[in-house]
Design a protein that fits this description.
Layout: H1 2-12, H2 17-25, H3 27-39, H4 43-63, H5 65-78, H6 85-116, H7 119-142, H8 146-164, H9 172-204, H10 210-220, H11 232-250, H12 255-276
Helix pairs in contact: 2-12, 3-4, 4-6, 5-12, 6-10, 6-11, 7-9, 8-9, 9-10, 9-11
């Protein structure tokens, strides 16, 4: 999803080289902690989890990091000038493809791990996701999205300021536009999240079978065909709108912002190369 990539593109530039290395070196511990928080896994399940994570991370370090660094440098070079919609769409599609490669490689491990989970562990996780989704809906309806608008705008401004070195007054309009649009479409995303949780519960019932690996990839990619394609039109509209916004905003960067952004991408690419060696 472009939304995911936009978040990665912005947040990745926030990370210093040392922090990137620290996060990558401790990725297995963090992932295990999150999964344990979700499922309250047993000692035996945790042992299996670390074994699978170590294998995935070793493959990722050897095979994928160099591709990511090359990709970041390509974006940096292109960002010397305003990005066209075609360029943005191409970058997003390729980032989506990289995510798919990672998920395809990880799906067999995810299937083996999911097969070790009990029905109670899965039911507890699905219930927690359902409650979280319901709370999001309740919070949004209580103030007509005012809090959601404020939260999203704050996050966007914070990311842009650090990524670009600051925001010009003339650029505030585009920040307000994206934040306002986010609130307009948020109810639709809440509907999609409800579908996502239902599909997740169904997919877990397939654990241990080839169908699980196929469907878990669609889930984590937020694929348009999820749920029989019910939201494919909405996702396509969302993607198109975001592509236009990124392209328009890139055309309004100052030379200083453009240089700041490119330096951050280049520094991150250098660090990924270092980690991969």
């Amino acid at each position: 999803m472009p939304a995911v990539f936009l978040a990665v593109l912005l947040s990745s530039s926030l990370l210093s080289g040392c922090l990137v290395r620290f996060m990558y070196d401790w990725l297995d511990v963090y992932a295990a902690w999150k999964i344990d928080d979700y499922f309250d896994i047993t000692r035996s399940q945790k042992s299996s989890l670390y074994s699978e994570l170590d294998t995935i991370i070793a493959w990722h370090r050897k095979s994928e990091l160099s591709k990511y660094s090359a990709f970041l440098r390509e974006i940096s070079a292109a960002a010397e000038k305003p990005l066209s919609e075609a360029q943005v769409e191409d970058f997003l599609d390729r980032a989506y493809g990289m995510s798919r490669v990672l998920l395809q490689h990880s799906a067999p491990s995810m299937n083996r791990l999911a097969a070790e989970l009990t029905d109670d562990q899965i039911a507890s996780y699905v219930l927690d996701r359902t409650r979280h989704q319901q709370n999001d809906r309740k919070d949004f309806m209580q103030d007509s999205g005012v809090k959601a608008h404020r939260k999203f705008k704050k996050q966007l401004v914070s990311s842009l300021e650090y990524t670009l070195g600051g925001i010009e007054p003339s650029q505030q309009y585009y920040v307000d536009t994206l934040a306002g649009w986010y609130v307009i479409i948020y109810p639709k995303w809440l509907e999609y999240e409800e579908l996502w949780v239902n599909e997740l519960a169904r997919t877990f019932r397939e654990r241990g079978t080839p169908a699980f690996e196929k469907d878990i990839i669609l889930l984590f990619l937020n694929a348009p065909e999820l749920g029989g394609g019910k939201y494919s039109g909405f996702i396509r509209m969302y993607n198109d709108k975001l592509v236009r916004w990124i392209s328009d905003f890139s055309a309004r960067l100052t030379p200083e912002q453009r240089e700041h952004f490119r330096e951050r991408l280049d520094d991150l690419a250098d660090e990924l190369d270092s980690i991969g060696r």
